[in-house]
Fold:
Amino acid sequence: MGRDKALLEIGGVPLLVRTARLIEPLVAAVTVIGSPERYASLGLRVIPDAVAGVGPLGGIATALRFSASAWNLVLGCDLPYLTAKWLDWLIARALDSQADALLPETPRGVEPLCAMYRTSCAPAIAAAIAQGARKVTDGLAGLVVQHVGEAEWQAIESAEVLFKNMNTPQDYEEARATLGSKAE
Structure:
């Protein structure tokens, strides 16, 4: 993308703030894992990544390490098409699960950055990172992971749009055109 996706704006609101606003009514607290200096002006609670340099798996490890909740919704901020209705369904599904982690699955694969993780996963993920794991799915080896297929939730939302993230300037322009005029 060439710049920090979290600060890209849709409808005049940075993606990180849009994501926080989306989930605030659904969760006990919103915490951003990243640079407190970079995101200080956004008015969000930000914790620096304690396991920097290992990608999203390090962010998940940090989030779980500092969480006071049994279950944690982990989201990437580059999923602008997520809806509160679908996330509420995912949270409810996790609360009824005995798994350690609940990951949505689409025809493209699992979505580990739009998933639910128990705080109790933290030691196993930290150990996996210490052994060189970098992929989120590798970091979950040895844990009970429940994949939730699209067939279970397709009546709520379409995966084709729901998990469409922004990886290119074209993706960003498309999201701005589609979502920029909707009420924030």
User: Anything to note?
Assistant: The chain is about 35% helix and 20% strand. Strands lie at 9-10, 13-14, 31-33, 45-47, 71-75, 101-106, 109-110, 114-118, 145-149. The first helix runs from residue 15 to 23. The chain has one domain: 5-179.
